[in-house]
Amino acid sequence: MRGSAGFSLAADPGARYVRVFPHGGDAPAAEADVRAARRLAAVADTARAFGVGVLLETHDSHRGGRDVARVLGLVDHPSVGALWDVMHTRLAGEPPARSYAELAPRLAYVQVKDIASVDDLTPLPLGTGVLSLAACLRLLLADHWVSWEYEAPWFPAAAQFDGLLAAGGDFLRCRG
């Protein structure tokens, strides 16, 4: 996200956060951490000026909470925090309690989904797949934001979202 255009787009409708990915590629962890931290630090003041936070998502090169926590430890800025994508921490082999412990000090947002298996990422109705969603949700404080990410466009065999919405909403309101 170059300049302030992205933050302006987020701030105009009142969005509190912009999510970003680490994009560390195949670089060694320490090098990828420094690159991600440098990028976050470069936009942190601009984000703050727009009243928007920048959340580093557990994703791609930094799937685990421990990985994102390392980067956030290099960026000491109140506008920079964590977005916990529960699927990615599972794919990193990290138990929910550890992910939460690593991310909790800077956790602003949690993204849930459910999948068929670690080898088949086809989205499923919440609570019916292999992710420990109930365990994750029980760890959260009542004011943590939780969002359901349903990636059906990339998986033609996935059920239509509109038929899952009511049950998914109930699952989230009951926190699993």
What does this structure look like?
- The chain has 176 residues and is of the alpha/beta class.
- The chain contains seven helices and five strands.
- It has helices at 5-11, 29-49, 65-74, 86-91, 96-103, 133-139, 165-173, and strands spanning 17-20, 53-57, 80-85, 107-112, 145-148.
- Strands 1-2-3-4-5 form a five-stranded parallel β-sheet.
- Strand 4 (107-112), helix 6 (133-139) and strand 5 form a beta-alpha-beta unit.
- Helix 3 packs parallel to helix 5 (96-103).
- The chain is globular.
- The chain starts with a helix and ends with a helix.
- The model has no long low-confidence stretch (mean pLDDT 94).
Radius of gyration: 16 Å
Ends: how far apart?
35 Å
Largest sheet: 5 strands, parallel
Question: Tally the helices: what do you get?
Answer: 7
Spatial order of the strands forming the largest sheet = 1-2-3-4-5
> What percentage of the residues does DSSP assign to strands (E)?
5-15%
SSE order, one letter for each helix or strand: HEHEHEHHEHEH
Structural class: alpha/beta
Unreliable spans are: none
Q: Helix fraction?
A: 25-40%
Number of strands: 5
Shape call: globular
Mean pLDDT: 94
